[in-house]
Every structure is written in C-alpha cells, then in structure tokens.
Fold DUF1640 domain-containing protein.
Amino acid sequence: MLKRTISIVRTGGGLSYRSLSSGNHVDTLRMVKALEAINVPSTQAEALTGAFTGGLESVMEKVKADIAKSEEYQSTRVAEEVRKLRADIDKMRADIATLQAEQRCDHHIQLVHKVEQGFNELKDEFEETKYEVLKYAIGTLVAVSAAEAVMIYLMIVDT
C-alpha cells in the first residue's frame, strides 16, 4: 500500500491542498498538524481531515469499483474476441479442408479425363492399325491368290 501525502497551504482567503505522492493512504496526523500550523483549531482540523479522508476513501472505492468493472468488461470482451477468433479459425480450417477436397476432386476429374483421352487416342490408333492390317492382309491374300492363279494357269498350260 502506497502512502499519499497531502500538502495543505493557506492561499489568499482559503485553503488548498496538493498530492505529493501516489497511493491510497492519507497521513491524517500530518494533515491535522499542517492545518493547525496555519492556525486552524484542532477540532476543525480533525473534522476537516476526517471529512477529506472520508471523501477520498469514497472516491477511491468508486474508482476501485470502476476499475474492477472495467477489468471485468475487458476480460469479458477479450474472452468474446478469443471465442470469435477460435470460431473464425475453425471456419477457416473447414474451408481449407473443403478446398483441399475440391482440389483432390478436381485433380481426380483431371486424371479421369486424361485417362479417357488416352484411351480414346489408343482406340483411334487401334482402329487405324486395324485398317492398315486389313489392307495388308487383303493385299497379301490378293497376292497369294494371284500367285495361285498363275501357278494353276502354268500347270494347265504345261499340261
């Protein structure tokens, strides 16, 4: 607990005071003596000191209560902000997971498309190759048939 020293001086037609240190304790004996030093009767000095310290204590209690309310408000506000941030983080995590799933799905679709495209290319190539093989087979059959016909002709002519 810090000590608060109050200096009281006579100014013109009245009294004034100023705080010399911070804290919430008033040196009442010193205050009474300071008032008596400027010719304030003891009973009045004690009454003034009592009224002043009572008022000061009342103000200090109100300040403490206001500080406690403010701290409670700030604590509640910080807790609410933390809750909101956690909710935002959870939502971002869910969004990231969704995006990753969509990307995997897109990647899967792209792979399926590439496989289908490759399959179609192979199918087209197979069709082209089939016709080429058919042409060679027909050509070979024609050549073999022609050779047989020539052989048959030669056998008939030789005989």
